[in-house]
Amino acid sequence: MTNVALGLTAFLIAGLYTLGILNIPLLGFGDPLGPRLLPSFLAGAMALIGVALIVEGRSLSGIREDWARFRSYLSGQDFRVVAAATVWAGLYFVAFGPLGYLLSTALFLLGMIGLFHRGSKITGAVVSVLFAAISYALFAGIFAVPLPRGILPF
């Protein structure tokens, strides 16, 4: 079952990649296939990998074993940690514009460090705030990268 799921995922990625390839503009000069040729080979290779994974993963006993492992994974601690981290990352992306880079990054790191680091909470908070402040100063100040300001005045 795992190989079948991976094969279907490979097909999905190859399809999305192909849609991206078709959006590459053709230039009026030079080889018209130039910018599309290599990406087309990569998409074809990804589709072939998908076929190979689906063919390999079609044994019935393997599907039963994979479903049992998958159900066990869904009910275990690992899945809850991955789900919590995924939801937290999604909230970070949603909050990035309204709260701004500095505040949203500090809160995101505070939550992630709280989830994964079992040491001092004060150290985690200091690292979160310092990383957000130093990276903001580096990107916005030195490299002049426009970052969302959010609710903070600077």
Automatic annotation (TrEMBL):
The keyword Membrane applies. Residues 6-148 form the DUF1468 domain. InterPro entries: DUF1468. This is Tricarboxylic transport membrane protein. The chain crosses the membrane at residues 36-57, 124-145. It holds the Pfam family TctB. Keywords: Membrane, Transmembrane, Transmembrane helix.
